[in-house]
Each structure stands twice: as structure tokens, then as C-alpha cells.
Amino acid sequence: MLEDDAALALRALGWILSDEPRAERLLALTGLAPDELRASLGEQATLAAILSFLTAHENDLVACADALQVPPAALAAAAERLEGQPSEGTIA
Asked: Which domain holds residue 31?
């Protein structure tokens, strides 16, 4: 399941990076420089941070979910699993 979550996080990152102000906000909130982000994409903590960034901003969460054609709850559940927290409920 974590492989699916990682793939979803990478797809979400693509969506985040498609908008420069949103991408800059991600970098500011994570404290990562672009090269550091790129170098850490294989790390579960980075992937969790990408999805957590979305879950902290409902408008972005909903817009990203629409763009990726997944329910917002799927992004939130993937974030929880990547963070090592149990997911509550089921993914619609």
C-alpha cells in the first residue's frame, strides 16, 4: 500500500509544482530547497510532507484531488499512512 501512497504523493507533487506560488509555499513550509526536495523524493517523510501540505489547505486538497481524479479522503489517508499513523475509515 505504501508504494501506491508514494505514487500518489509524487502525482500530487506534480500538481503542486504546476503553480509557482503554491510550489514556493510548499518549499517555505517544508524548509526544503528545490535540490533538497528533489534528492529526498525517495524518502517516506518527504512524501508524507507533500501530502500533509495538501491536507493543511482544504482548497488545495480538493483542487488536487479533482485534478488527480481521486477523493480528497484518499490523499488524506495516504498522508496518514506515510506518516505512520493508522488511517480511520475507508477510502471512498
From this structure: 2-82
